[in-house]
Amino acid sequence: MTIKFLRGNLEAPKGHAIFVARNSADPRTVVWTYCVVPPAPFSLAKFLPPFMTAQMSAEDIQEVAGNIQAMPLSPLMEEGCTLEQLQVLAERRDDDLCDIGSVNLHDTQGRMQLVAQSSMNYGQFYLSAHNTRQPASSALPAYEEEPVALDDLDAEELLLQTMTDRQRLAELSKLVGLTRYALEGNDTHLIDETRQRMQRIARQLPDKYRSNELIIAAANAQDRGAKLAELYIERGYKLLDEEYADIPGIEQAIRKIQEQ
Q1: For position 107, what pLDDT does the model report?
Q2: By C-alpha distance, which of 76, 60, 56 is closest to 68?
Q3: Nearest CA-CA partner of 173 in 228, 133, 229
Q4: CB atoms closer than 10 angstroms to residue 7
Q5: Bridge partner list, 4
Q6: Are 76 and 112 in contact (CB under 8 A)?
Q7: Phi, psi of 157 (to 5 degrees)
Q8: How far apart are CA 177 and CA 218, in angstroms?
Q9: 244/250 Cα distance (integer angstroms)
Q10: Order of strands, edge to edge, in the sheet holding 16-23?
Q11: pLDDT for position 100
């Protein structure tokens, strides 16, 4: 796999580039994404949505963090722009513009793999050029000795803000299941971590979904907690689908369990 610089220089990448790939069925059509090389170390785990990190071990997350040198935004190439439009955009923004090959637009996995590999290659080009140009007497901070904390850059929070209420409710539903699993295993660390994730999602939802009550119910180790959480999730979807006639029955079931 090779990267062809349509704008910019392979020997001196800027660290930010528009990637384009041609439709294998029609080379006149392109898809694109944006690739950025981070200027300093950061916590990659914050860029992983909750539903992904919930299924990954700490070792898996560390492995991903160690292999990433550049990040594509988004990892799945987008449609809707012509090559000419992207050339104008790259010129205006002073971005590199890179042709990363051709891809089958119907092969989602192939598109993601192409972007991931191209991002890694671009990151290696950038680091190689940077290390070559860097003077030995540079006064830049020694990040290897004292990493710069960039915790204020909270990608997970940004991701939550872009979600619809239905997507947020779906994430809460998944985290309810993870909480019940943690309770069965008496994993207090996972319980606390999952509750914090749920609270972050709850802050993005209107009060009518009663997310905080859902979180309390999910963390209740008794069977009634699981049933309450299930009812709150069901109630949330009824609100989303505007099936208001079904809500009084759910409310009654919630009150009945709470009174037990």
Answers
A1: 87
A2: 60
A3: 229
A4: 16
A5: 99
A6: yes
A7: -65, -40
A8: 8
A9: 10
A10: 4-7, 96-103, 16-23, 26-36, 71-78
A11: 93
Q: What is the pLDDT of residue 229?
A: 92
Nearest 10 degrees: Cα torsion 93, 98, 104, 107: -70
DSSP H helices, 29-133, are 50-53, 58-67, 83-93, 108-133
Q: What is 43-63 written as a DSSP string? A: -GGGGS-HHHHTTS-HHHHHH
Query: What pLDDT does 43 receive?
Result: 56
pLDDT of residue 49: 55
- The per-residue pLDDT for 54 is 53
pTM, two decimals, is: 0.47
Residues 6+ apart with CB under 8 A from 110: 103, 104
H helical segments located in 134-187:
155-162, 165-184
| Residues in CB range of 34: below 8 A, 6 or more apart | 16, 17, 18, 19, 72, 73, 95
Number of H helices, E strands in the chain: 10, 5
Tokens 């070792």 locate to: 59
| pLDDT of res. 124 | 86
- 10-residue mean pLDDT profile of the chain (260 residues): values are 88 93 90 86 56 54 56 84 92 94 88 88 85 52 42 57 84 89 88 90 91 92 91 92 92 90
Report how far residue 209's alpha carbon sits from residue 212's, in angstroms, rounded to the nearest whole number.
9
Greatest extent of the chain over all pairs of C-alpha atoms, in Å: 72
Q: What is the DSSP string of 204-223?
A: TS-GGG-HHHHHHHHT--SH
Whole-number pLDDT of residue 144: 44
